[in-house]
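G., the chain you wanted modeled:
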Amino acid sequence: MPERMIPVDIEDEMKNSFLDYSLSVIISRALPDVRDGLKPVHRRILYTLHDLGLYHGKPYRKCAKIAGDVSGNYHPHGEGVIYPSLVRLAQEFSMRYPLIDGQGNFGSIDGDPPAAMRYTEARMSKICEEMLADIEKETVDFVPNYDGSRTEPVVLPARIPNLLINGSQGIAVGMATNIPPHNLGEVVDALIHLINHPEADLEELMEFIKGPDFPTGGIVYAGTGLKEAYATGRGIVKIRARASIEETKKKERERLVITEIPYMVNKSNLLSSIAKLIQEKKIDGVYDLRDESDREGIRIVLEVKTGLSSYILSNLYLHTQLQVSFGIIMLAIINNQPKVFTLKELLTAYLDHRREVITRRTLFDLRKAEERAHILEGLLIALANLDEVINIIRRAESPEKAKEKLIRRFSLTPVQAQAILDIPLKRITRLEREKIETEHKELKLKIREYEEILADPKKVEAIITAELTRIKEEYADERRTIVSMEKVEEVTIEDTIKEEDVVITCTHGGYIKRTPVSSYRNQRRGGKGRMGMITAEEDFVEDIFIASSKSYLLVITNQGRLYWLKAYDIPDVGPASKGKAIANLINLKEGEKVAAMVSVPDFSPGKYLFFVTKRGLVKRTELTAFAKPRSTGIFAISIDEGDELLAVKVTDGERKLLLGTRLGMSILFSEDDVRVMGRSARGVKGISLAKGDLVVGAEAIAGDSGFILSVTTRGYGKRTPVSEYRLQSRGGRGLINIRIKEKTGEVVGVKWVSEEDQVMAITAQGKVIRMKVKREVPIYHRSSQGARLIHLADGDFVSAIASLREGEE
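Predicted structure as tokens:
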């Protein structure tokens, strides 16, 4: 016999085959039906429980038996595929209202797998019985199963709005569904309102349905995403864990306790991610992490340093699944087609299904009532003519002849005649006659009632309302998830930064780093210091100052341009590290070099930036002028050729400015002596310098308290009371600040300090010494040379100093 070959275009075959596969996945596997909210496998599991009679009050049966029956009778995909679906229907952390009552190990929120199906048992939960109620009354269509040996329901009657209260997740071909669970009581209230007010809009429905209600609780930040999802079928909301702070017996510690986590988050993985953050020191201040969860609920405990709970929680929101995004996609099957539904459309589709179910149930009940009434009418005729009926039956040659004679004599139907022949003798007593008459009257009333229901849609809706009300009374519970209509405050990098004082260190070669102040221990005067920064041979530390880790850093270059940074943007690389090239942090132009930095907490009005150049020029500009710099920088001051920017200070309009020079001179003048200028101004003379002299320090002083600290390159220093510096006019030669000699070297820096402050000095070779001003820096007259503060190695010199204000400890 010749081989038969059919030529097929590969492109057409691929298209057709993939389309068939896609439709199969969409309709028969991955997406729920909008009417009962079930995928085929779930529907077949529940119908198999119905077949086996495993209702809530009945004994449990092995899951292996249930899965085997589902596979053998309805779902030809293997027990290994069916059992996980059965397990999910029983998990309280997956289903808001579990449809299966499981006995045994059905897995945990930690991701532990369930026991093998030969060890677990199951039956319907009580609420599941509502899904199958009236299925025997022809309320839904049945179709042949996969091998045609029996029939299965296309959809379940579903007295409960399962799709909304339990939600659904699934990935099909080219589409996905992600419907969150909701609170049964709220959904019922919305359905009843929609029955009474079919024209109700979304605003009205959302007065009843506040938002998703997850089995694991948590806090939903709806923002605009929830309303968008309910209005269009798609939207995104944020879910956060619920956390609280508890006191401990130790004042320096407090407990951060997490009692609810976002939906579908694996608790074990969550704990691992938190532990990893702690181990990698991405969050500080955590002493202990414990999982105290039990049957009563989740309890994750972090023992933390008092006051750091908010900072730690922000880190956990950003870096772990304590905060997740939930993308709502309300996709379901209707009329064998996938469709994205709005909230109102979902509610309407469910009500339409219930109307059809109740109509079909009523038709079924009407037919059965009419059939029974028809039989009872025949019996009543027989009982009214009992003697004649008995004679006809007695004289008949056979039951068939008796049946024919009864039909002819009393105008009965074959069904009525057969019922008369089948009636037992005990039913012809007077008492039994009365029962038949009573039953007939009751049936007539029921028939009339059924006919009225079928004739009046309002009566159908009244039945739906009554059933929903009973469902709510019997199964509704309190909402577990808090819904906030506010948009969640996005956790930013800044929220995860612990606010602390940091040392910002810059080198002549353009490297910058930050180090917590706590990394530098106090030392006594004359100490050798500790290694603070490793630099290249040709590089040296040029500037050092203290800032908050969340401060704004205004970086001003030698060309007078200002750039904007946050202190936490500067890498924290440890006290001995070189740091990172500042050119990698800001977009410096060719030939630009950082000349000065200033730390400001914000850009509030009433503050000024006071610029000082090495040639003694000064300038004052309002701080608000620098609030919004561009990535390419903005002009802050015009610099003369041969001059450089030395320092920038933040002032409030009531300060006195002190300028200290390399050769030991100083001048103190009022801030008012310098008028407020624009960003591009050059400035005015602050001090007249001697030949070879330059300004090396500038301070904005409030009042007459405190001291002027001066340090030289050879490690000498002193502090002098501010009262020894008389107020002068801007532009003069000034007064002697410190007597310099060959052994002292030139002045490297001048700072305004109090007795409670500390001072840090850093050398060109990267050593740092930190001293308490009151104990380690002696007081000397303005014209003295001071005392040795730090011992230096051969070839080393002090390159920069910084003061730590009171409270910066």
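Residues 343-384 form the longest helix (42 residues).

Shout if anything looks off.
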